[in-house]
Design goal:
alpha/beta, six-stranded mixed β-sheet, 37% helix, six-stranded parallel β-sheet, 273 residues
Length: 273
């Protein structure tokens, strides 16, 4: 019998996840069906329970339900618990297990696809919301020299630093306001929502240098204002499409026990933008 999976969101018609997972299945010889699932804004929990009743094996979760997915899970993996958000559910043995593959997906894209090691590097994370929370632990596991979390509201960044205090060496993760960003960083990640509105986060040019990798979690046919600004100040730039494909590969591995190769699929997805 074909195992069924889906991605749950609202809206959901734009999601590229079905195409990505269909390609993974072909390349790994897995017999799965992966669909889009539109959940009512006030009906996420009911939607998940219906999927379980219908025999689905798991689901990805996208906006605006990642916090609700964490709440409905009967068990959370460590990275989901620390992120406070879930983007991958698996249904097994009567449990709803929540995980978060966003951070591992981003790390895989930076380290494997972009060829930039994070060990010993200085990382600047712009934003302190859900997107940022999901990547701090996977980044820490790469052994960076420092992670600086910059946010418009400094107190929110301070709270995020405190949240991960038990996972980091003293002083390894710190917070600042955008106005306090100074020397160039090795890696700068835009985890704000600015690019959704084609806007620029208030990061100064001093954050970038000729050796900087500047990555925007958003993706599109054209570079975002953040990417254009970083490039003008000497940085190499990358959008979030690789993160999308890599986090999907991580979810696929959780469900199927095999991690698909991503290079050809990433190139194919790039051509369709």
């Amino acid at each position: 019998m074909t195992d069924k999976y889906c991605v749950i969101g609202n809206p959901i018609g734009h999601s590229k996840s079905p195409e990505i997972h269909a390609a993974f299945a072909v390349r790994t010889g897995q017999d799965i069906l992966y669909e889009r699932c539109l959940a009512p804004l006030d009906g996420f929990a009911e939607t998940v329970r219906a999927l379980v009743a219908q025999g689905y094996r798991g689901a990805n979760v996208t906006v605006p339900f990642k916090l609700e997915a964490a709440a409905i899970a009967t068990r959370l993996e460590e990275r989901a618990r620390l992120a406070g958000a879930v983007n991958t559910l698996r249904f097994e043995d009567g449990e709803i297990v929540g995980d978060n593959t966003d951070g591992p997906g981003l790390v895989a894209d930076i380290v494997r696809n972009a060829g930039v090691a994070l060990a010993g590097k200085r990382v600047l994370l712009l934003g302190a919301g859900g997107a940022a929370r999901g990547v701090v632990l996977p980044f820490l596991r790469q052994g960076p020299a420092a992670i600086v979390i910059a946010n418009r509201t400094r107190a929110t960044a301070d709270d995020l630093v405190a949240h991960f205090a038990g996972q980091a060496a003293p002083g390894q993760v710190t917070a600042c306001g955008f106005e306090d960003i100074a020397a160039p960083f090795d890696v700068v990640v835009n985890a704000t929502s600015a690019s959704l509105a084609a806007a620029m986060p208030p990061v100064p040019a001093a954050a970038f240098g000729t050796g900087t990798l500047a990555l925007d979690m958003m993706y599109g046919k054209l570079p975002s204002p953040f990417m254009e600004f970083a490039a003008r100040h000497g940085a190499a730039t990358r959008d979030g499409l690789g993160m999308l494909v890599e986090q999907a590969a991580e979810a696929f591995a959780i469900w199927r026990g095999v991690r698909p190769e991503t290079a050809a699929i990433l190139e194919s997805m790039r051509q369709t933008l």
